[in-house]
Amino acid sequence: LKFEQLDIKSAFLNAPIKEDVYLMIPQGLDRDKRNVCLKLKKAIYGLKQAPLAWYCRLSTWLMKLGFKISKADSCVFYLEEPEPIWLFLHVDDIGIFGKHLTELKSAIEKEFWTKMLGMADLMLGIKILPMLHCKPMTTPLIPNVHLEPATESEKLAFQLLNINYRSAVGSLSYLSTATRPDLSYSISALSQFLENPGITHWNSFLHVLKYLKGTSEFVLRYQKNLEKPIVAYSDADWASELHEDLPLTRANLASIVGD
Question: Domain of life of the organism in this record (predicted)?
Fold first, then answer.
């Protein structure tokens, strides 16, 4: 499957408007017609109804192609036949996801002035990694690999990737506090190297993503059950770090209130 991104140039100018909007004649044109104004036929930037007009223009055209609007999000469109295709819209930025996209891209280019951006790697501030077909892992960290401070060569190898390691680890931190507490130890280990990460730390981060793919069905399920008491577990880690400059003592408490 491919996930490609494209940009509609001057998107709002493609959208007709229903309201009557009149404009003064711009400077440089015939100023003798002082009692004459211009009637706007299509939306322009700065007009409050322009975003909605553009959405109606694009969604109407997509539905003519057979797309349907998602009930969960009106900015998500999907095509079921002949092959599934998903289209994501954010103002004039569009992401398309599917196996064969050539025909759809050609149709969009014929209808709108479009800039094709190729495979999506950054969309709405979200870094997209090509790991859809990665091998799932069963452990959150690479077994028998002790994370150590990066050497200069490891730092350089990682810098060439031009990736924000701190932001990447932070995204996992949010996940661990929400629905995946099993990531807590991994994130704690990766967070020790936020200042000077190396390629080994990045590979360990990617391993966590592979673990998430292999455990995507893991859930926290809370049910009303008065028969089971609340149970708490605590654990501590003593002198497991190999380097004195990375002291770490952990005390974890997990409260279980569901199955």
Answer: Eukaryota
